[in-house]
Amino acid sequence: MRFIADSMLGRLARWLRLLGYDTEYFPHIEDRRLIRIAREESRMLLTRDTRLVKMRGLKDVLLLRENDTFEQLRNVIRTFNLIPCIKADELKSPPAFSRCSLCNAVLNIIPKEHAKPHVPEYVYDTSDSFKRCPKCGRFYWKGTHSEKMREKLREIL
């Protein structure tokens, strides 16, 4: 399932990306352009804008009434029967932590030595695997932050 989130749902978009779901998000976008992208790319539109859902011809849309990001995430997961893969040994797709949380690109696994000049020395010494976003260049690794995110996901799921 592919999503596009309106400008009020930036945190939700980031969490959906962390779960591995293709989620476009533009912080400043006109409603008509948002709808056009949703249609052209066959994306489910996620919004908190009650005016937007009333626009003529809009059908693939979920109106989220929750204020809390994690309640919104829980709603999306339940509504679309998503089965997030948050354990490394699960074979479900999409795998969590496979997309850039900033730009939505699919991350590439890179050799450890390629990460050395780009990550803190301690991280390089204590981590075995690294990923890099091919679009924005950001580096990712399994650290305490990813375990905290996994715990939060287990809590809300």
Structural notes for this entry:
The chain is of the alpha/beta class and 157 residues long. It has 2 domains: 3-79; 108-156, no CATH class. Helix content is 36%, strand content 14%. It is built from 7 helices and 7 strands; from the N terminus they run E-H-E-H-E-H-E-H-E-H-H-E-E-H. It has helices spanning 10-18, 31-40, 50-53, 69-79, 112-115, 121-126, 144-156; strands spanning 3-5, 23-25, 44-47, 61-63, 108-110, 130-132, 139-141. Strands 2-1-3-4 form a 4-stranded parallel β-sheet, sandwiched between helices. It has a 3-stranded antiparallel β-sheet with strand order 5-6-7. A hairpin with a 6-residue loop joins strand 6 and strand 7. Residues 87-91 have low confidence and may be disordered.
Please describe the structure with a list of short key phrases separated by commas or semicolons.
157 residues, alpha/beta, 4-stranded parallel sheet, 3-stranded antiparallel sheet, elongated
Strand order of the largest sheet: 2-1-3-4
Q: Give the uncertain stretches in residue-range form.
A: 87-91
Radius of gyration: 17 Å
Overall pLDDT score: 90
Query: Alpha-carbon distance between the termini?
Result: 18 Å
Question: Rough shape?
Answer: elongated
Helix count from the secondary structure assignment: 7
What amount of the residues lies in strands? 5-15%
**Helix-strand category:** alpha/beta
Helix content: 25-40%
Largest sheet: 4 strands, parallel
Number of strands: 7
Domain module tally: 2
Element order, helices and strands? EHEHEHEHEHHEEH
